[in-house]
Amino acid sequence: RDRERQGMAKNTNMRWRLPLVCLLWELAMIVLFGVFVRFGAEADAHWEEEKRDMNLTSDMENDFYFRYPSFQDVHVMIFVGFGFLMTFLKRYGFGAVGFNFLLAAFGIQWALLMQGWFHSFKDGKILIGVENLINADFCVGSVCIAFGAILGKTSPIQLLVMTLFQVTLFSVNEYILLNLLHVKDAGGSMTIHTFGAYFGLTVTRILYRPNLEQSKDKQGSVYHSDLFAMIGTLYLWMYWPSFNSAISDHGDAQHRSAINTYCSLAACVLTTMAFSSMLQKKGKLDMVHIQNATLAGGVAVGTSAEMMLTPYGSLIVGSISGIVSTLGYVYFTPFLESRLHIQDTCGIHNLHAMPGLIGGIVGAITAAAATEDVYGKEGFIKAFDFTGVYQTRTPSMQGSFQAAGIVVSLLMAFAGGAIVGGILKLPIWGDAAAENCFEDGIYWEVPEDEESDVYHMHNPDKPASP
Amino acid sequence: RDRERQGMAKNTNMRWRLPLVCLLWELAMIVLFGVFVRFGAEADAHWEEEKRDMNLTSDMENDFYFRYPSFQDVHVMIFVGFGFLMTFLKRYGFGAVGFNFLLAAFGIQWALLMQGWFHSFKDGKILIGVENLINADFCVGSVCIAFGAILGKTSPIQLLVMTLFQVTLFSVNEYILLNLLHVKDAGGSMTIHTFGAYFGLTVTRILYRPNLEQSKDKQGSVYHSDLFAMIGTLYLWMYWPSFNSAISDHGDAQHRSAINTYCSLAACVLTTMAFSSMLQKKGKLDMVHIQNATLAGGVAVGTSAEMMLTPYGSLIVGSISGIVSTLGYVYFTPFLESRLHIQDTCGIHNLHAMPGLIGGIVGAITAAAATEDVYGKEGFIKAFDFTGVYQTRTPSMQGSFQAAGIVVSLLMAFAGGAIVGGILKLPIWGDAAAENCFEDGIYWEVPEDEESDVYHMHNPDKPASP
Amino acid sequence: RDRERQGMAKNTNMRWRLPLVCLLWELAMIVLFGVFVRFGAEADAHWEEEKRDMNLTSDMENDFYFRYPSFQDVHVMIFVGFGFLMTFLKRYGFGAVGFNFLLAAFGIQWALLMQGWFHSFKDGKILIGVENLINADFCVGSVCIAFGAILGKTSPIQLLVMTLFQVTLFSVNEYILLNLLHVKDAGGSMTIHTFGAYFGLTVTRILYRPNLEQSKDKQGSVYHSDLFAMIGTLYLWMYWPSFNSAISDHGDAQHRSAINTYCSLAACVLTTMAFSSMLQKKGKLDMVHIQNATLAGGVAVGTSAEMMLTPYGSLIVGSISGIVSTLGYVYFTPFLESRLHIQDTCGIHNLHAMPGLIGGIVGAITAAAATEDVYGKEGFIKAFDFTGVYQTRTPSMQGSFQAAGIVVSLLMAFAGGAIVGGILKLPIWGDAAAENCFEDGIYWEVPEDEESDVYHMHNPDKPASP
Questions:
Q1: Does B65 contact C at CB distance below 8 Å?
Q2: Tens digit of each residue's pLDDT (9 = 90 or more) over B157-203
C-alpha cells in the first residue's frame, strides 16, 4: 500500500550522516574555540593581579560565588528538566532525553561562541566566565523549547541543524533586544520563551505531516512515563527561581527575582489544578496540564521578576498564566492542529508561547510603571541601567522599548522558523515516516524488553531472551 | 452488595468543588499578599541605600548568598523528596507527586502569611526574603509529613483543607516554641517532625476506615514504583544537611549543622540495613525500611545539629534512630493499625514521630549540657541567643524549655489533629470508598496503558489502543 | 544437575552476617570518632574568636560558603549519580541503588577517619570541615567505581569488606600522591578514577565466574530501567563541573575548573553519539554508550581542569575521551571478558580506567607546559603550590611527578585489588551462584509484581496479590 511504500522509501539509517555531522561540527568548535575563546579575568590564573587591581579583598568577590549555584540549577533544568519533561510519550523516552542531551551539548558550545562574539569580545578574544555558561544554557533552553514542538517527528540530524541555526538567530535577536533596544529580560520571557516557542511552532508548521494519525497509538503516555515526566516538571518548577535570577544584578535583584518567581509558580499550580479539573467532565485531573501548565508562572515573570513586580503582582501573573496555559491545552492545541496544521507535540504554545507573550507584556507594564519612589533613586538607575546614553530614558519609554522587544522576537521567530523549517524539509536528513514517529526503535537500539520475561521468569515454557 | 452501595454512594467528582476551593483560596492569597506582603530590605530595590546604612561593603553580605543554595535544596526535598518518596504505591504515583505538589504550592503561600505575621511583621507589612521562603517550605514540610499518614485515602480537597489548618497551627506552635519558650529548633525536630507526624497520625485515627482491606491489593509496591520512591529517599537523604542548616546562624552554625547531619545520616543507613536484614527470616532487605528508616537520622538531629553535638554524638543519635525506626516498621505499625486503629500509609510514626521525639530530647540534653568551655564565651551566647531578656538563662533552664517545647508540640498536634480530623470527616469533601483507595483512577485521568500494547506492538492480531 | 547443586550449596542468607558487620563497624566508627574527630575551627562554636584572630570581617569567609554548594552537587553524584547509573539492569535496581547507598554511607565515615589521619590531624584530633566531607565523598566515589565492575555478582558483605580496604588504600595512595609526590589532582583522574577502576577490575578478575552466562538473560536492560539509568548519567554529567572544582583553590581555580569541565563534557557528548552510531550496522544509538561514554570527558580533565587547560584544550580532551570510551564499549569490553577473564558489568574500564589514564597524562602535560607567562608570577606559584620545599620545582619536574603519580596509582590498584580480591574470594561472604547473579530477589524482598495485576485489574478471574 501507499503508506508502506512511503515508509519504505524513508531512509532513517544514521550510520554515516550523524557521525559526520557530529564530528565535523565538533572539529569546527575546537578550531573556533582555539582561535577565539579564552578565560575571563575571574577564571584566569592572573586573578591574583586582577584582585589587586580591582581592590578586591576577598576571593568571594569572584563572580563564580554569586552565580555558580544558580548556574547548576539552570544546568539541571536544561538537561534533566527539559529532557525528562518530554519522556511522557510511551515509546520516545530515549529520544526525549537522549536527543535533548545531544542538541543541548552541541548548542552550548555554539552559543558560547555566538553570544561571546556579541557580548564578551575583547581584543579579538571571547573571554568567558560563569555568566557565559549560564547564558549558553539559556540560549539552548530556547532550542529545547522548539524541540518540544517537533518531538518524535524529526531525526537527530534535523535537530542538530535546527540547533545550529536557532542558536545563531537567538544570539542576533538577543543582541538586538539587550544591546540595541536596551531591553531588560533577565529570565528570557521574550528572548528565550517567546522566540523559542514561535520559532518551534513555525518549524513544525512547515514540517506539517498530514498522516500523523498513523502513529497515534504512540502519541500517548503510559503510567510510568508520566511519572518520569514529572521528574522533569518538578525540576523545572523548583529551579525556576534560579533561572530567572541567575544573571540579574548582584544583591537585591537576584534576591527579588527568586522571590517573585517562587510566588508566581506557587499561584500557577493552584489555577492549573482548578482548570484542569473544571474542564473535564468527571472533574479528573489531567497529567498533561500538571506536567506543563504549572510551569507557565515561571515563564510569565521572566522579564519582570527582577523588577519591583511585588509578591502579590507575581501571584496575579502566575494565576493568570496557569489559567491561560490550561485553557490552551484543552481548546487551543486541537484548534492549532486541525485548522492551522500546527502539530505541537508537547504543547509549547501553551507552556512557552502564550506565557512568554504575557511575560513580555507584564515586563513592559512593570517597567513603564516604575518610579524613583518605588525603586529609590540609585535603585531605579541600577535596575534599568539608565546610565550613559540611556540616562535620559524614562520608564514609559522603557516600556515601549520592552514592547518593541516582543515584536522583534516574534518577527525573528517567524522569519527564522520559516527558513529553518524549509531547510529541515529537505529529504536528506533521515526523518522517519509518519507511522514510525514517536518510536524510539527507529534511531535507538531498544531492549527487546518483554517485561513479561522478567516478571514471569518462573515460567519454564518461555525461552529466555538473549 | 453493601460494599458496592457504599462505593456508589460516594461522590468523588471534583469538577466544581476542587476548582472552587483552588480559585477562591488563590484569590484570598492575592488579596492578603496585596495588603500585607512586601520585599524585605535585602530584596528591595532600595538595597543600595540599605547597604550604605549598614556599612556593608559587598553585595555578598546579602542574606541571599548565605541561604539560597540551602533554600533550593530544601525546595527539592519538599517537592521531589516527599513527592517521590510516596510514589512507592503501585497505583498512586500521580496522587503522591501531584497532590503533594498541590498542597505544598498552596501551603507555602499561606505559610508566608502566617509565619510573616508572627515573625516578619513591621509597620503593618510582612517583609519577606529568602529566609521566609525557607521557613514556608519548612512549614509545608510538616504538612507533607501528615500527608504520608493519609496517603491514598483522601480527596485533594481534604488535603487542601488540612493544609490550611495545619499551616495555621504550625505557625502558632512555632511562635510558642521559638518566641515564647525561646527554644532552639533550626532543623525542626519538634516544630516540623513531631508536630507534623502526631498531627497526621491523629487525623488518620479520626478518619479510620474499618474496611480498608478492600483495597489491600493496591497497598503494595511494584518493582519500578520502588525505584521511583528511592529518588525521593535519596534527595531527602542527600539534602538533609541543607535542611538542618538552612536557617542556622551564618558561619560556624550552618557549617556545624551540615556536618552533624551528614554524620548522623551516614550512621543511620548502616543500622537500618542491619535491622532490616535481621528482622526478616531469610535476612532479605526490605525496601520500605531502606526508603524510610535511613532518613530518621536527619530527623533525630534536627534540633541539636547546630549545637556542639559533635560528630560522634551525631553517629550515636543516627545509629539509634535507624534502629528505632526500622523496629517501628516491623512491630509498631501493625500494632498501631490493629490495636489503635491508626492507619499510617507511609509509616510516618516510624520516620517522623519517634525520631522527632528523639530529636527533641537530644536537643534538650545537648542544650542542657552546653558549657562556655565548649562553646567559647561569645559562641555560647550566640548559639543560644542568650541576649536581652534571656541573658540570665542557664543551659539547664534552656534544656527544660526545650523539653517543654516537645510537650507543647505534642499537645498542639493531638488537639489540632482531632479538630481537623473531625472537619475532614464531614461527608462533603469527596473522598473515595474504601475499595477505591490507593487508586489514581478516582481523581486522575490515567492512561489506558496496556503496557502490552507497547511491548508487543509487533503482534498483528492485537488492535492498537487509541 | 551440577549447576543446581552449586546453586544450592551457596548460602546467601544475610540474616546474621550482614547485621553483625554493619553494627560492629558502626560501633567502631562511633568509638574512633569519639576518640579522634572534632569540628574544625570554621565549624566550631569558637568561630567568633577565630574570626577575630584571622582578621576576617565577614562570615562569608567561612569555607562553608566557598564549598558547600559544590559539596552538595558531589553528594548527589555519589548517591543518585552512581546509584541510578547502575540501575540499567532489568532486575538489579534495588541492588544498584541500595548497595551503593550502603557502601557509600559506610565509606564516608571510614574515609573521614583515614583521610583525617593523613591530612587533618592536629594535636591528636582530626579537625573536620566541609572540605573533609567532600574528600570523603570523593574517596567513596572510587569505591562506587569499583562496585561498577562487580555489580550484580557480589553480596552486600563483600561490598562492605571491599569498601573498608579500598578506602584505606585510597587514602594511602592519595597521601603518596598529594603529599609525597606533591602532585595536583583536584578532580581525581588518578586518585579516584585510575585507582578506583583498576582496583575494581583487578578484583573482578580475581572473582572471575566462568559460568556467568547462566544469568545472561538478566544482564540486559528493559526500557524503563534504561531511563532510570539516564537519571544517574545526567546528574553525573551536569554536576561534574562541581566535582572537578570542589576542592580547588578559592577564586579563579574553582571558576576555571568548572569551565574546563563544562567544555570537555559538552564535546564528549558529540563524539560519543558519533561513534555510537557509526559502530552499529544500522547506525542506531546505543543507550549503554550514551549512559556512560558521555561522562568520560569529566574523568579526562580531572587532573588538569584547575590548570590553564583552556576551553579549546578541554574540547580536545573531551572529544578524544568520548571516542576512546565508546570504542572501549564496542571492542574492548568483549575482549577483556573473553581473553582476560575480566567481567566488567558496567564497563568501568571504558568510563573510568582509560579516561582516568588520559586524565593523568593530560594533567602531566599541562603541568609540564605551564609558564609564568600564562599563569602570571603569583598565579603560577599558587596554581602548583610551589612554595616551601617545593619552590624550586620546575614545570617539567612537576610533569614528571604527575606521571609518577599515575604509575603509583596503577601499582596500588593492582596490588590492592589482588589482595582484596583474594579476601573476597573466601567462601564466607554469602555471594550468589552464577545463575542467581543480577537478580534482586536474592538479597531483597521484591514485590510480587505481576504488573499484569495492576494493569488488568478489571480481570475478575485473577486473584489479587496480597
A1: yes
A2: 999 999 999 999 999 999 999 999 999 999 999 999 999 999 999 99
What is the rounded CA–CA span in Å between residue B294 and residue B289? 7
What CA–CA distance (Å, rounded) separates B164 from C285? 50
Please give the pLDDT value at position B452. 41
Does pLDDT of C3 surpass 80? no
CA C197 to chain centre: 8
Query: Which positions ≥6 away from B414 have C-beta within 8 Å?
Result: B198, B202
Complex ipTM over 0.90: yes
Integer Cα distance of A232 and A220 in angstroms: 17
* HSE-CB for C334 with a 13 A CA cutoff: 4
How many whole angstroms from its chain centre is CA B80? 12
Which three-class secondary structure string do you get for A320-350? HHHHHHHHHHHHHHHHHHHHHCCCCCCCHHH
CA A9/CA A74 separation, integer angstroms: 41
Angle (deg, nearest 10), helices B156-175 and B93-119 = 30
Q: What is the enclosing helix (H) or strand (E) of C46?
A: none
CATH superfamily, with its number, for domain A18-440: Ammonium transporter AmtB like domains (1.10.3430.10)
Instruction: Look at residues C231, B327, C169 and name the one whose alpha carbon lies nearest to residue A101.
Output: C231
Residues of B in contact with C457 (CB under 8 A): 217
Please report, for chain B, how many H helices and E strands are present, in that order: 21, 3
Q: Do C376 and A80 touch (CB under 8 A)?
A: no
Query: What CA–CA distance (Å, rounded) separates C203 from C425?
Result: 9
| Minimum-distance CB partner of A223 among B34, B128, B449 | B449
Q: Which residues contact C334 (CB under 8 A, 6 or more apart)?
A: none
- In sequence order, which ranges of A77-125 are alpha helices (DSSP H)? 82-85, 93-119
The backbone region for C123, taken as left when phi is positive above 0, alpha when psi lies in -120 to 50, beta otherwise, is left
* C-alpha cell of residue B348: 510516618
Q: Which of B209, C35, C385, C69 is closest to A73 using CA atoms? A: C69
Q: Tell me the pTM.
A: 0.95
Instruction: Give the DSSP letter string of B385-450.
Output: T--GGGTT--HHHHHHHHHHHHHHHHHHHHHHHHHHHHHHHSTTS-PPPGGGTT-GGGTB------
The grid cell for B78 is 519538599
3-state secondary structure (DSSP) of residue C327: helix
Report whether A21 contacts A162 (CB < 8 A): no
**Counting Cβ atoms within 10 Å, is residue A457 exposed (0-12), middle (13-18) or buried (19+)?**
middle
In angstroms, the separation between the Cα of residue A278 and the nearest Cα of chain B is 5
Distance between alpha carbon A424 and the CA centroid of its chain, in Å? 20
CA B216/CA C90 separation, integer angstroms: 27
Nearest-CA neighbor of A328 among A275, A270, A268, A407?
A: A275
| pLDDT tens, residue by residue, C159-217 | 999 999 999 999 999 999 999 999 999 999 999 999 999 999 999 999 999 999 999 89
Q: What sign does the dihedral C260-C261-C266-C271 (CA atoms) show?
A: positive
Question: Does C44 lie at the interface with B, CB-CB under 8 angstroms?
Answer: yes
Q: Which of B318, B184, B316 is nearest to B241 (CA)?
A: B318
The residue of chain A with its CA nearest to that of C221 is A447
Q: Kindly state the DSSP code that residue A464 receives in the 8-state scheme.
A: P
CB A227 within 8 A of CB B87: yes
Chain A CB within 8 Å of residue B390 CB: no
Structure confidence by residue, pLDDT tens digits, B75-114? 999 999 999 999 999 999 999 999 999 999 999 999 999 9
Comparing CA positions, the residue from B144, B163, B150, B93 lying closest to residue B444 is: B93
Domains of chain A: which residue ranges? 18-440
Q: How far apart are CA B273 and CA B275, in angstroms?
A: 6
CB contact (8 A) between residue A263 and residue B33:
yes
